[in-house]
Amino acid sequence: MTLHFSKLTKRPVLLFFVLVLSGCATYAGFNLDQLYGQPEPQKRILPAEASLAQRYLNEVKPLVENRCVVCHACYDAPCQLKMSSAEGIDRGANKEKVYQGTRLIAANTTRMFIDAHSTDEWRQKGFNAVLNERMQSPETNTQLSVIARMLTLKQAHPLPDEKVLSGNWDFSLDRNQQCPTIEEMSAFEQSYPLWGMPYGLPKLAENEHQLLMDWVAAGAPMTSQNTVSPEARDEINKWETFLNQNDFKHQLTARYLFEHWFVSHLYFSGVQSSDGKTAFFRIVRSRTAPGEPVDLIATRRPFDDPGVSRVYYRILPVRETIVDKTHMPFVLNDERLARLNEHFIQPEYTISALPGYTPELAANPLLAFDQLPVSARYRYMIDNSQHTIMGFIKGPVCRGQLALNVINDRFWVVFVDPDMADIPEVAAFYASQADNLRLPAEKNSTALPLHNWVTYSKQQGRFLRAKNEFMNRTFKNGEHLTTDLIWDGDGFNDNAALTIFRHFDSATVVKGLVGTPPKTAWVLDYSLIERIHYLLVAGFDVYGNFGHQLLTRMYMDFLRMEGESNFLSLLPPNTRHAELADWYQDANQPLQNFLQGDINDFSQPSGIRYQTDHPKAELMQMLKKKLAGVDQDKTRYALDNLKLSKDSINQLRALARIQGRQATLYPELTFIMIEPNDPKVQPQLLTLARNSAHKNISSLFEEEKNREPSQDNLTLVHGLLGSYPSVFWHIRESDLADVVTQAKRIYSEEDYQALLDKVSVRRTDPNFWAFSDQLNQIYRINHPVESGLLDYNRLENR
Length: 798
What we know:
This protein folds into 4 domains: 14-217, no CATH class; 225-357, no CATH class; 391-527 and 534-631, no CATH class; 638-782, 2-Layer Sandwich (Nonspecific Lipid-transfer Protein, Chain A). The protein is built from 29 helices and 12 strands. Helix 16 (385-394) runs parallel beside helix 20 (526-538) and helix 20 (526-538) runs antiparallel to helix 21.
């Protein structure tokens, strides 16, 4: 590249003259190919040591991350423009939506670094350039760049001077996205002058805008994030050696681990990238063995037929910016390796032959891995339960109301003691039920939901009847049916207690029994946690058709009710029926029949002696007490950890007690920054989450009809929960008492907006980007491994 990354001079150019003459016409009215040559991908990816690459890394990339990636990452990036990597920027945009719930056939996959490996290949898949791919000069690079034109449009037409944007602004996730090509930009600019980038947010500062324009003018030189340090290479060699040994034990273990790690961001303790941050990696299937270049096997799902006789598991660097909504860190260290050897390799058992990849087999982990000890599989999953369940929440999708309206807004999750899985009768029972535990993924990504729904409902009924019969024998007369059944984390593992928060079409899983006792709870055993993983993570295809996604959601109804039923089994029989009736008010008749029959046929009494007329509340307290030693609610999320005065903390507790229709006025997630009275103390971060109540959550299309706003409440925690803030508050500690007093008096939308006038950093606030930078920096400082950039696609306009 011969262009220099230097300051542009402000001079008229031919293209500007052409633009003025064109008026309403688009560039398509002119023969750009004749004027500036045929478009052709440019060589923008430079070696990291090049001076232009270094300037990109040190100056341009941080700005792109903090101003662009906060909206343009993952499958829900507008126009599929993923700006989280150099390759993603060069790939460009696509008018097709990944989230299209009505499609009748599965869409072609467009996963970065998997489904294509060059910009040429992405052009063949329908992606349009957002950088100039014709004649290269500073003038053409800026005037024929969609990115530059979008940025310039915003500079020329900043946000209106109003607190809440009025007019035709649409911030819904399913809004009509224009996704103009460079040939369509003139028409776009005339039709939507306020829609420059960043969309619906303040314009970039002049120096920031100039930096990006200079970069584009120079041809947008970039470099890839694919370097591996010597320390990381040593760790990769160690783990690839473990995962690729020739004996059947290692091969089947590696396949099992891959199908649970494929969405993870792996890291090695103490190993950093060139920028001083933790270096993250991903595991892939390859046709080539360690020591050779990776020849990636790209399939829709991790258990699909690889098409080769021998699969090798390889570890590659993550080449994209870490964003919170897809970030699932998982450490690989000597302790982990010893644990895996202890559970999977050292026990005496024989694998006679490796399983195949037919969908009926590969999509059912209870069949595919029946030769691995159940205790090893279950131990692995609960030892890392937050990570396991995080896959359900963050894994294959970035948003998903279709899947998430199958869970309550906040509930606790605990686990059956793994010693139960070591009982031979348990393993034999799972083996006997393998055919009844088949999953929708075996039907691939183009399913017909109604016929298959009937099939799966019948098999789930058969399984539950068999399970209830097995439990009635095992727990005869209530023997052992006490909290002794619940895993205590072996006294040290804080994965034993989890809380899941739903935020409408996103969710968060955290360690600890957070908040006041919730309406429902789950008790997960091996078959249940494994099936949820293969339903929502390994077997879910975000590119699948409506039938696949609908069937997945409906099947999850069964699994949720099974987890709830396990919890209810610890209550007195009469209470079980009463609680289930309360959880499923106004349920339709088929569901009522299912609840009264298959799901609720366990009749053995609980072995717990209850002392009050509120056994569920007693049981919740028993769980809190049993798991107190590993409950992160007392450490990470407790308000007492805030570096504020006791009086301020008490004021915040009052804020958390708001409930009912007052709580309904609050958004899903409020991120709060409080400036302490002591200027030496770092600003404190909190999250106020709204928990929406429902009569039942069994109806896919009638969620609003099933809402119970009078039962809504709020949960306030220390730190950040979730990836998608709805609103930001910025408060001085000295003003906290007045803010809480006003917050408790909110009874209308007007009241709420008046509070925002006092405390919020709205999307229209001139200080929005400065606040955003500070918030992300504090989050990164406090949690350097777990944190990622937040996403602003759900910021409200209120």
